[in-house]
Amino acid sequence: MNLYTSLTLRYLKENKKRTIVTIIGIILSTALICGIGNIYSSFMDYQMRETIKDRGSFYASFYDVKKENIDYISKAAGVDKYAISKELGYANIGESSLLKIKQYDKVAMEGFQVSLKEGKLPTNKNEIVISENNKNVLDKVYKIGDEIKLSVGERASDGKEELNDWAVVKDEYIKNPEEKIFKVVGIMNSPRYEYNNDITMGISYIDLAEVYDNENINISITVKNPKDIYALAPELAENAKMEQKTDSNGAKYYNIEYNEGLLRLLGASGYNNIRESLGSIIMLVTSLVIVCTIATVYNAFSISISERKKQFGILNSIGATNSQIMKLVFTEGILVSIIAIPIGLLSGTVAMDIVFKVIQNLFSESFIAEMDLRVVYDPSIMILSTVVVLITIFISVILPAYTAAKISPLDAIKNSGGYKIGKVKNSKLVKLLLKTEGELAYKNLRRNKKKFRITLFSLIISVVIFVAFSGFMTLFLKAETVRSGQMTHDMYMSTRSEITKEQSDNIRKELNDIKGINNYSEQTHGFNFNLDLNENNINKDNKETILNSLGSEEVNGVYQSYNNGLFLPGDKSIKNLNLTSGSFDKDTAIKEMGVILVNKAYYESPGKKGAIDMTSYKVGDNIEVYTTNYDEDGNEIKDDVYKLKIMGTTEDILTGKNSYNYMGIQLITYDEVGEKLGLDIIKNEFSIDSNKTEETRVLVKKLSEKYDLNFTDEAEESMAARHSFMAMQVFVYGFVSVISLVSITNIVNTISTNINLRKRELAIIKSIGVTPGGFNKMIYLESFLYGVLSLLYGVPLGIGLCVLMNKMLGNVIEFGLVLPWPAVGVSIIGIFVITFIASYIPMKKINKENIIENIRQESI
């Protein structure tokens, strides 16, 4: 062991507390940087697995391809793997249940995640595996070995209601049925795309050799380079002589479906701005962690240099060179790094593993338990984290090492450097507000500007980090809500038949009597109306986005907005709305034709989506809406013009809807206002938000049967969405907790060490007659002044970074400016509490020590 290492180890051992605090700071910072990498890689892995479970592992699927043309796709250059499938049709089993049958070849079964619970996979067209959900759907529970005879065909209905896989409607039937007999050879786990208990899945086998040449089938592919898929797929479709279709805008397209979610995770999405924006935000967040680490480590080494000034001066006086002094400081940095970095890497990885396990245990009986969260141990993250921390420590040590090398032997031995000689400028405001002790505290801070700035910088960084990180996490949760929408209901009752007013009143009364129902809306689909937008009423901040999305031409400075809705959700739903402005009294609303304005509008463009303010209307404004019709010459004319008064505004999403109107406003009012407008009010749908208990769900289902309504139970989906969001919150606030620990460590280390280094100075102040109460007050006021100054600088900087991240995220998801006021409040309270505690501990120790010994401490 050489002299430098020996001296450094000796110093580290003699100052165990400071060494431990420094090591803890580096450990937390390393764990945080490693944790960011682990979170990123683990969630990428989770999303990849979840996306494959939902949509399969293929990059693109071609629908309705003639069997004779399949080779143009399957054998094309660049295609890596392909699978054959076919939609066989539906079979009606029971009064209100369907079996949906698909045919897959072996590769498709693997790629589309057909997971067996028991039995085997089908190997010919007469064998089938049925979802385990069949016990909830079919009149008879089918077991392995059973033969089932089915009439398989297309779904059809005499009504106007759209048929989809969400529910079975009452009057639908199977069109063009074909008798088929299958043998059940396996039971599979319920696939993700099995939406509803009314419909269950069955998978049979398809053999390409048995398919007729002119028969249409589907082919799904992966390619060697995922980024080539968007250019390659249309070429393959053209070569395979696929039929071109025309959309509503007259554009030609092939029936190709891209697995956009998987391609985005593979970095092959056409929406590059998503990756760029998220990459920029991750870089900014990581930079904040690095700055916090630099502040913590730099502060620790600066304090260390200040404390050892005499030691460095003596070494200089006996011939030590500047490079040798710097080497001592760098050796200290290397030694604490050797201890802290491995522990930090291990902590960051183990902590994430524990968090995943805790989340799954907390939600062991919910959807979260099935999320299969796992930590991905990526060596590159460990290496990158180590390199980042080492560079950070090196940057943190350079300036203190240079400062140590420059110390003059005479100044160091006298220990006179750093203090301001002469009169220190007083603050009249401080003297007025904080009296004599406050004035003394202020002068103490100003005496050594360098120490003051180092300490203040460290505290400012802690405030900035906390506010910025908390703001980022708030933005993240808000963005996720906008991206995925909100699940506002868990049960739904509807019918296409007209419900009489008496029936509607009875249903409403019985719903009100059921305990466990939080809210319900009596109308999910509103009355559509048009709205004229111009310079006076369009939201100026979002003007460009709005005009680009409306799709209407300007006529005399006016743009038509088409996708607006007037909703009559019922008294209970209106009563539960949270108004952001105004009030909505029923009698006044009926008298003045009053409405509540939902000014937020949802929009989506390639690579971007969001919720924005649509208009500049406010409470008290009158709004004119209308429907359109056509005259004899085919010209569009205004019809049914309504003049309404805005009495309140809200940002709530109505029960039964999961987002705002697409580029259109919503108006909400009472049924009586709708009647005065002459609207044909039919209450034939009820969206219900409940406590999701089995008892409540059974009562609502019985009510739907009583009035012959279609019933859809979406409680599990609602709970899954809520638990998924809760899991996200656990991650978010766990992340904020770790960064808070780093900040608290930094503050405690800074304040307590700053007081300990001034033992002689404080002892002199006590020796000239300052009372114990006055002395304590002075120390507390020093911490108070540090807190005030750090907040004055730190809060605006933290908010500024939040605004910057908001703008970055706005390139992908736009939802307006969200400022972290709760985090600001916590930081204001926290900074004073932490600085008080950090001052109290060393002050209590100093009060017990001998004044004479402390005065002699640095003068020997």
From TrEMBL:
Residues 284-409, 735-851 form the ABC3 transporter permease C-terminal domain. Keywords: Cell membrane, Membrane, Transmembrane, Transmembrane helix. It is a multi-pass membrane protein. It comes from the Bacteria. One of its GO terms (cellular component) is plasma membrane. InterPro entries: ABC3_permease_C (IPR003838), Macrolide_Exporter_MacB (IPR050250). Belongs to the ABC-4 integral membrane protein family. This is ABC transporter permease.
